[in-house]
Every structure is written in structure tokens, then in C-alpha cells.
């Protein structure tokens, strides 16, 4: 397949708008998987993905499709199509941008009844900024409340997409699906790249397989990659021999070669995924090449301590975390010790859902029992001597300062919220209670409003989404992007049991909220701590000042 007959595309959508179902249908339509193969959503492979109905890790599949146009007969040319699945949730936008780097186009799937939602907007801009050709797909047109014309208006108003470009489909009944792959071939450009240059490819993903070793997913940008070739990593300088190379069809299928523009897998005797850095350039050995632009590195925005539920299980937890991070390089891990919980790890995540998913995978895939501490964000503190530190663990912030804190900053986000207009009042109240500042308030159609707020990240990582869903009867959708650090009046709050601070329970709070947060925490603890024959005092304190107390 020369590049002219290759197309690399992604499907992007708000959660639940039908991306995985559409992907399944396309795989069936091309005979890549059997119809009714018993397991819906082929590309959602992790147990946590099936349970939560969300896509966490992007997967790729290659399909072959004969493109018959009016002027051609049955020997119409066959095309090689690489479908790169992407996660829909905001926490995984790191995975999304990674997948988009290997694509020239994207199907933007929008639910015909729900219309454009917060993550539709975020994903559209990720694709737009990567210069992809975007094909709008209005899905679920079989639903009684479907209103495709309204969705077309929204697409026009928000993204300046011509209504005539939209495809109308139902991934459930199959209606309209026959237009999708012809549109992919006609509207998405073939991959650029020089066929006769030495091989150069982008490392998209890697994982460890017990039998085969490290398997790398790559997009070949220039040249061709053959079994037996010697390749080198631009990041580490190490070289390897290509032991096996092929496509995901949808399982690993050896082909012996990958040509310019193709996406596939390579096995090259790497011993650990640490050698396979995502975003690295792999190239023909013994020559120097210009490295490809890598990916935006993962930014860790939520931190939490993870401890074994039974202190003696530290080794088991350590082993489980090591294995899991082999497949999720976006988690940062450092060892830490707590007086209360013993030895454990401080882990950094992309967001709250990412943290939950990691936690759940530890328990499900590795049988680890885990205690996690209150999530926190990376604060910056400045001391009297002018030095600045980033604080990822509140307990590490000395409460008895030989060093006086002179200023502190906290990370903020720009949040996009889409809601039916009758909920605007309560949502504005929620955002201002969470110290938000309104940036925008517009209507995307007659019934729906779009609000933009700058909010401290800390205020949205605990409970914000649940509360937002609660006050809007589940209708609100929400997405956020990182914004700047803002100066803030922050204090460290300790929890004391019988006068002794419990390091694992220390948190950093906004000064004005300290009293309320402290009161809530000690009341909650009173309920959780079993009754004893003697008195136990439970206190919340800032420095030496007690701000709440229960007995
Ligand atoms: P994430 O992977 O979490 O981002 O979700 P997704 O966008 O992949 O959505 P998914 O394919 O899992 O579909 C969500 C739900 O919508 C499922 O219950 C599907 O069965 C249903 N669904 C998908 N397409 C259609 C459709 O065309 N019509 C109807 N009525 N339901 C659909």
C-alpha cells in the first residue's frame, strides 16, 4: 500500500456519544472483526473500561476497504485504513493528543439528541490545532429526541463547520454507516512522508507482553521498516534489531514490513517499557536524523499517597505499581513514608478520573488492597529567604516554620460547562462558592448555555463534578484545561488525635474555608472512629491554633 492508499484517522467525541460503538461497526463492515463477536466495543480492552463504559487507553486497528466509486467496477482499489481509538474523558487528553499526532483526519462524533457537549469542544480544538481534516458525524439519529438540524446549527455556530459536511448515522441500527469510510478516503489526506528516505518513525505507545517482551506501536513517517533492520532510539541512542513487525488487524499480525504512512507494531528486544519512551523517534541505526516533534509531556495535576492496606504488603504493592506503570507511563511514582501508614508511594495523576482508574486497576488486575490519602494539587510556597518549593504532599510542608511562608500559589483551570439554560443560576452559585471567576456566558442554541470559569484546580478535584451533576439533574457537561498559577491565601491544616498530628491527614486549604473544612472533617472522623473506653480528642489545627474539635 503506497501512502496514497493509506488513511490514518481517529474518532473523537464527548463521552457516550457512541465512539466505541461506531468503531466496532466500522471494524465489522470491513470484516476486521466478526459481526456479533460477543464482546461489544472491541477496542475497549481493559476491564475497567468495560465496567465504566469509558475508553482509557487508546488502541489502534488496521482495516482494508475497497473503495467503489461510480466510474469503477469491482477491481476498485483497496485502501489500508488505520483507526486510532481515543479516550473521550478530559483526564486523558494526553492520550488524545498522542493519538492525533499519527492522524491526518478525525471523525467528530456528536450525539443527535444531546448535541455539542463540553468534551466535543475540547476534542475539536485538539484536532483543529493538529491541522486535521475533521468529518462531523451526527450519531444516534434513531433516537426519538434526535434533532440533527439543531446539531448542524451548533456545529456551524461554534466551529464554523458547513452543515452539508455532516454525516448522519446510527451506530445502533447501521443507518448511514455506508457513507463513513468513503468520506474518510475522499476527505482525509494521505499521510505525508518520504518513501525513499531512511526509516523514521514516531513511537506512539508501548506495553509489556509476558511472551513477546516490549511491543511498540509506531507510525512510520518516512521510509520503510523491515524485519531484520537495525534501528536506534533518538532519545537513548541505543540500537536494536527488528525481530518482528506488522499491523494490528485487529490482533498483532506479522507482515514483515511497514511502509511510509503506516501504523503498526515493532518488537525489537527492548527489555523494559522504560526504553520505549512515548513520543520518541526511532530511526535507521548509525545515521543521524532530525527527531520528530514529540508529544506534550504529561502534566501531573493531582497527587495522592498510596499505601498498602496491610503494612506488610508493601513489596506486593510496589510490584503491582511497577507493572501497571509499564502500561501507563503517565503516572509519576516516588516512595514516601508516613508515621500513620508506613511505607507507600506518592503518585501523580493527570486528573481525578485517572487516579480512580489507576486505583481500580491496581485492585482488579493485581489484587492489591490500597489506602489512598486525600488528593491534593501541586502548590508552590515561597519562604522568607526567597526560596520556592513545589508541595505535592501537604505533610511535607513543615508546620513549625524556622522558615516563614511569605507567599503561595495554586494551579487553576479554565472550565467549560454546558447546561440547559434553566440551571444557569445554581451553577453560577456553585462556581462562585468554589472561588471561580466567570470568563464567559453565552448561549449555544435556544435551550443551552455555555459558561466558562477560571477555578482553582483544588476546588474541582473533590466532589465538584458530582455536585454539578446533582444540581443540574445530570444534564451538565464539564471539561477543563490547565491555566496559570494564581497567588492565594493558603494554610496547612493538621488533624490531631489526642494531640498527635496524623501526617497522612494533613491538607492545604484556603484560609477562608479552613474553619468549615476542619469542622466537617472532625465530624466525619467522629463517626468513623470506633467508640473507646477512654476519651479521644479529634482536632483540626492550623499551626498551634485549634479551629475545630470533637470528642
Ligand atoms: P467512551 O468510550 O466512554 O468515550 O464512550 P463512547 O463515545 O465510545 O460511547 P459508546 O460507543 O460506548 O456508546 C455509548 C452508549 O450509546 C452505548 O450504550 C451504546 O450502545 C449507545 N449508542 C451508540 N451508538 C448509538 C446509536 O446510534 N443509537 C443509539 N440509540 N444508541 C447508541
From TrEMBL:
It catalyses: GTP + H2O = GDP + phosphate + H(+). The keyword Transport does not apply. It is a peripheral membrane protein. The keyword Membrane applies. It holds the Pfam family GTP_EFTU_D2. Its EC number is 3.6.5.n1. Residues 4-192 form the Tr-type G domain. GO terms for cellular component: mitochondrial inner membrane; mitochondrial matrix. PROSITE patterns: G_TR_1 (PS00301), G_TR_2 (PS51722). It is found in: Mitochondrion inner membrane. One of its GO terms (biological process) is translation. CDD domains: EF4_II, EF4_III, LepA, lepA_C. Its main location: mitochondrion. GO terms for molecular function: GTP binding; GTPase activity; mitochondrial ribosome binding. Keywords: GTP-binding, Hydrolase, Membrane, Mitochondrion, Mitochondrion inner membrane, Nucleotide-binding, Protein biosynthesis. GTP binds at residues 13-20, 85-89, 139-142. SUPFAM superfamilies: EF-G C-terminal domain-like, P-loop containing nucleoside triphosphate hydrolases, Translation proteins. Belongs to the TRAFAC class translation factor GTPase superfamily. Classic translation factor GTPase family. LepA subfamily. Belongs to the GTP-binding elongation factor family. LepA subfamily. Promotes mitochondrial protein synthesis. May act as a fidelity factor of the translation reaction, by catalyzing a one-codon backward translocation of tRNAs on improperly translocated ribosomes. Binds to mitochondrial ribosomes in a GTP-dependent manner. This is Translation factor GUF1 homolog, mitochondrial.
